[in-house]
Every structure is written in structure tokens, then in C-alpha cells.
Amino acid sequence: MTEGNLAEAFNARQKGTLPGNLGIDWDVVATGEAKARFTVTQGHMAPNGFVHAASVVCLVDSACGYGCIASLPEGASGFTTVELKTNFLATAKVGEVVACRAWLVHGGRSTQVWDAEAVNETTGKTMAVFRCTQMILWPR
Questions:
Q1: pLDDT tens digits, residue range 32-46?
Q2: φ and ψ of 138, to 5 deg
């Protein structure tokens, strides 16, 4: 496990990748937690005029993944997502801000379970609740 807030390092690390391309900005990446947000642009939208579900999943899944990296047990080499589930409750439009908070529910030697919530900061509505299971990888 790492110490301190790694948000600045993860903001730099994601440049040129999907989270970076979606403009996700990290406030906290630390042992057991992650917090981030993005401002909805046309690039986040589905053709129906509302934010695309995949944009929200990218935010919450990235939060859980980045938190997992910051929370890996000593000696682990990485992780892979083995299951994820999202319930969508509300949406967002261009110009609104979507924020996420993720937290570690279970941190074992072979798996981690993470929960996350996405909230439309503009309206105050919960947009999605998310749970994923990460399998911890070990060197061979």
C-alpha cells in the first residue's frame, strides 16, 4: 500500500488514455479511496442528448482501479477487474459536473471489492452506484 495522495501523479499518468481523454481530474487517489470529476462536454454524450453511460462507467471504474493501485498489498504486481456492476439513477447534460467518490469495501490478498457513487454536482442527484471486484496479481 502507498502513503499519501497520489492524485497529481495519476492526473499526469493518464494523459493520452481514455480517462485523460475524457478530462477526468483527480482530487484524491490514496489507500482505500479515490475522488475525481469531469465537466460534461459533447464528447461525453450519447446521441440522445444525455451523458453516455460509458462516460460515467469510465469515471467510477477508473476511480476504483486507481484506488486499487494505491491499495495493493506489499509485493503485488497489479490487478485486473473481474466483475463490475452499475445502476444508473440520473443523467447529466453538457456543462454539468459529474463527481465520483470510490472506497475500498474489502482489501484481501487475492481480491479487492470497491464501491463508488457518481453524483451530478450541478443538480445534486446521484447518477450511478457502482461495485467492482479486482483480482490482485502477483509476480510469477
A1: 999 999 999 999 999
A2: -125, 145
Give the pLDDT of residue 1: 65
Are 20 and 14 spatial neighbours (Cβ–Cβ below 8 Å)?
Answer: yes
Statement: residue 29 has pLDDT above 70: yes
Domain boundaries, the chain: 7-137
Question: CA nearest 59: which of 1, 95, 18?
Answer: 18
pTM above 0.85, yes or no: yes
Residue 98: C-alpha distances to residues 27, 33, 52, 136 (Å) = 13, 17, 12, 29
Burial of 126: CB neighbours in 10 Å, binned 0-12, 13-18, 19+: middle
HSE-up of 118 (CA within 13 Å, CB side)?
33
Pick 7-137's CATH classification: 3.40.50.720, 3.10.129.10, 3.40.630.30, 1.10.260.40: 3.10.129.10
- CA pair distance 22, 27, nearest whole angstrom: 15
3 pLDDT tier (thresholds 50, 70, 90): confident
* Average pLDDT of span 72-93: 97
